[in-house]
Amino acid sequence: MKSSTQPINFGNHDPLALHVDVLPQIEALSLVRGRPLIISDCDEVLMQFLVGLETYLETQGLWLDLKSYALTGNIKRRDTDVAIDPSEMPDLMKGFFETSTNLLLAVPGAADALKALSARAQIVVLTNVPFSQRETRARSLAAQGMDYPVIANTGLKGGAVRKLADIVEAPVFFLDDIPHNISSVAKAHSACHRLHFIADPRLAKLMGPAADSHFHTTDWRLAQTFIEERLTEDGF
Length: 236
Fold this sequence. Notes:
Oligomer: single chain
Shape: globular
Radius of gyration: 17 Å
CATH architecture of the largest domain: 3-Layer(aba) Sandwich
Number of helices: 9
Mean pLDDT: 93
Number of domains: 2
Strand content: 5-15%
Largest sheet: 6 strands, parallel
Low-confidence stretches: 2-12
């Protein structure tokens, strides 16, 4: 989920832009050239972000009004039912990630699907988690059967995906719940197979398939089948 209701305007934004702290993480990976690569988002793809956030909000006397696919403007105080001010969002989300990154539960079927797919492809998790929580996120994923390299990103993901694709020189698959991340990947590496994945059915109902996606689902079994079929078509 995005913490703003503002649409993304690519305008002068460079779809290949990379944050200074992201490139070293990519360069530290041991990727095999010529082997397909699956790049997966984490929140609402591998981990149940919404359920964890709602649990955290309860401890803060807040609740999430799921009237749109956004956080800003939808988090309200339980005593007044008034939305918190947007200026409060950074500290609120900082507190959430600091206390809850290690508590989020895996999306059903994610670990089994990735385990099966790992026989045919490399896997990297590309997540917009605070840089300080990268290791915590990696440990949490590993503890739940998803021990794969984790890249902490910020902003759009097209630049990171393009860099990874240039390294492997093989078919690339990208999964994310946010349409503008999928669009940025489409601009940065058009050959990438793009899956719009939203795990929580309540969120999925609020948004149709991303315009720049090739496949839309809430089910890892279906995502696995789509990836396997494309791998076969690509000769892997």
